[in-house]
TrEMBL record:
Protein name: Glycosidase
Organism: Arthrobacter hankyongi
Keyword Calcium (UniProt): no
One example GO MF annotation: hydrolase activity, acting on glycosyl bonds
Signal peptide: none
Source superkingdom: Bacteria
CDD domains on file: X25_BaPul_like (cd12962)
Amino acid sequence: MTANAQENNANRLKAVLDSLAQAGEGSKLGGSAVLAEAIARFPLNGQEGELLSGGVPRGHKTLTSATTKLVKAGWLVKGRGGWNITEDGLRATVAFPDAASLAAALADGTPVPAGTPLPEPVPAEAPEAEAAAVPAEAVQLVEAADLAQAVELVQAVAEESTATGPVDAAFPQPAAVALAGDFGTALGCPEDWQPHFDEVQMTLDPNDQLWKLTAELPAGFYSFKAALNRSWDENYGAFGQPDGANHELHHTGGPITFRYDHRTKDVTASAS
């Protein structure tokens, strides 16, 4: 694992513990939702987003394996009803307040120092609590092993829920954005994977500065990328990676809305 991947995973592991701490001792959260939220806060990079056998992103598998360290330390309990943090785990969030110190403690087997206080409770109405909410659809997607789509859904919800004020309308935008993929012909294009056709062009929403395309697609598995200015010269794949791996979508059929954010170079999709 590269140094960057190790740092990313440490941040996600800290996010897992913090989410459980926010829920409080005795409260159980779905493990799938906790993992999806951590990845939404610290998105997978290109290598971490590579799909392993079974369609599991590499970074998701690494994080899942890393949570066993929390169990071994006695800070996390995994049960059939969900995951919950122990009292010692709550104190660990105080003793090891950042990702680096938490990772070091887990690696060295460092116990929580005696006398470490419990963290201050977070009010239920705090903005952080709202931002941490994970939609039920994301949990269902994870349980169905559609992990990549689950991460995109949680990211979309997190971006919308944490927006605080007007979007910068001065942010430079491309002249055009197309969703070029294997559903082009379903939208009326003469052929698939061609970014110059009008049918796959997105429209910029001036209110939130997102490019959007709503389409009616039959049920199926689709792959696509965001291509700028009606050519492949500049294009972005999964997790906003330039010339990256294709976005993948399992669609149950019917209307769906795609959103491209030029600030993150990523695409999200949700049923309309």
